[in-house]
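REQUEST ID: PR-0412
SUBMITTED BY: lab tech R.K.
PRIORITY: routine
TASK: structure prediction, single protein chain
INPUT:
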Amino acid sequence: MPRTSGGAGDGTATVDGVLLSIGAVLSRLREEFPEVTISKIRFLEAEGLVEPQRTPSGYRKFGPADVERLAYVLRVQRDHYLPLRVIRDHLDALDRGEKVSLPGPGESREALEGPGEPGPPPELRIGRAELLAVTGADEAELAQWESYGLVEAGGDGGYDAETVNIGRLIADLGRFGLEPRHLRSVKAAADREAGLVEQVVAPLRRHRNPRTRAHAEATARELADLSVRLHAAMLHSALRIRLR
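STATUS: complete
OUTPUT:
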């Protein structure tokens, strides 16, 4: 599955090596993937999974190999729930002429992570004392984080990996004088963005097909990643204007 595109052309969707516009690629892919969007194609490009050519004016032009790569990525995401980093490894292997084995529908999520890359157990939790140790906070600070809804223990009283990461970031910001009360707006913004993502994937989550429901989870993670990147870009832009 080589990265090289077909020969130059006028962008008309043909089968003889003519380069395609992103709109033509979208039309082709939607025959098998009706939910794909131009934003999705651009996201996959940004992640380095496809490298279309560019015209002198900056327009993307996709060759047959590019369309094939995009279809492969979308197919294994939909049918095998593979994360993008694993798909990238598969594409690299295919580019080298190697064979790639895809997990069967009955295999565990751990198998999807690829050989030699076992992730932590998804339900791994730590206790209150451990959270205090890894964040450097004391009981009073943790109680304050919880009172403002910034962190929350599970039903078993433990904290998951995301909460640990949030606690570390709160502690780091605290060293700059930002208190939990200052971070309520950040939490509120995150809740609003989560609501938007939920609206987008809700139709997929209600689907009776378990593969479609699994696709909803992958889509939600992708939307969250894009949202985080957009927030970071807007924050940097706003600071650049304010600090001029």
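NOTES: The chain has a mean pLDDT of 81.
REVIEWED BY: pending
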